[in-house]
Specification:
Structural class: mainly alpha
Number of helices: 2
Length: about 60
């Protein structure tokens, strides 16, 4: 059964949040990442592309 857009985005957001938590803890030594929005957008783009999804401007 196909997943809804909301389910796909929720899964990608959960994966991005988990990956970012690891990035802050392991790479940044627990320091809050002020570049989070850019990093997050890039991670989501890669995650969605790897799953075969594409977001395009309408």
């Amino acid at each position: 059964m196909a997943h809804s857009t909301t389910e796909i985005l929720t899964d990608a957001l959960k994966q991005a949040a988990a990956a970012h938590g690891i990035h802050e803890a392991e790479v940044l030594g627990g320091v809050h990442d002020t570049e989070w929005p850019q990093w997050y957008a890039e991670h989501m783009t890669r995650t969605l592309a790897a799953a075969g999804h594409r977001l395009t401007a309408g």
